[in-house]
Amino acid sequence: MNHQASLIQRLQLPAFTASQIHVDVMRLDQLHPIVSGNKWFKLQKHLALASPGRPILTFGGAWSNHLVATAYAAKQAGFPAIGIIRGEQPSSPSATLTDAAAYGMQLEFVSREQYGQKENPTFLQQLTHRYPGAYIIPEGGGGIPGITGSQDILQLADTTAYTHICCAIGTGTTFLGLHRASTPQQTIIGVPVLKGFDTSSLSGPRTLFLPQYHFGGYGRHPQILLDFMNDFHRDTGIPTDIVYTGKLFYAIRESIRQHLFHAHSRLLIIHSGGLQGNRSLPPRKLDF
Ligand SMILES: *Cc1c(COP(=O)(O)O)cnc(C)c1O
């Protein structure tokens, strides 16, 4: 993990300067080329609860950021790792699954139907029977350890002077961690990437959601999003991913254009990584 580089970078776009808004990005994507930033933080507190020598078991699809991050983090901490993968074993595995296997994760493919049981206590009991003493991390690395792990993100730098902290929402675990770690003066802004995501369990004082930037739903990445990601990379040098952070940066840019923030606001956008997932695209869709 690269903790040396300065993780905070100023974002300068014409739309921002005109509005007198200061925007910084926390580049968690730069921690590691494969292991997505927020997943790494969520995993640390899970791994702290696992029994030495016993396997870590988790779930994911063919391009899961969480799965490959778990494989890497488990290897680093000296745990065997098992990945329960959604869908039948493909004839040629995805780059993500290839990486996870290279980090030593044992992959077990299950039908979509069976995968749907991933939160069913009986199914989980069967898994712990098959892999004795396994510590099971829910898909996406959620739960209380995931929330407390995410709190550490705001300890990476002095973040107290920001008025708004912005992140993408998948499960909302990271959002909750950021909210807990924020100061009473800060507003936490979440951009759900799932269509129709119910934010009621996440909302509280100092929360704000921008639900209209899912681009059709989870895993959807229409050309207009890809065009934005290419433009954004050209203008700022920052690569984004098609599932989460492309939508996040688009949403914040639009919101600034629409004067959602008062002058002199100071925004911190959490770039939560996920770049490895862009490998699911056909070649030449992205310029980076
Ligand atoms: C998983 C993920 C998220 C969403 O995190 P949650 O805690 O599930 O809301 C955001 N960005 C990236 C890059 C991710 O991989």
Automatic annotation (TrEMBL):
Keywords: Pyridoxal phosphate. GO terms for molecular function: D-cysteine desulfhydrase activity. Its cofactor is pyridoxal 5'-phosphate. It comes from Puia dinghuensis. The gene is dcyD. The lineage of its organism: Bacteria, Pseudomonadati, Bacteroidota, Chitinophagia, Chitinophagales. SUPFAM superfamilies: Tryptophan synthase beta subunit-like PLP-dependent enzymes. The active site is at 64 (nucleophile). Transmembrane segments: none annotated. It comes from the Bacteria. Belongs to the ACC deaminase/D-cysteine desulfhydrase family. This is 1-aminocyclopropane-1-carboxylate deaminase. The modification N6-(pyridoxal phosphate)lysine is found at residue 39.
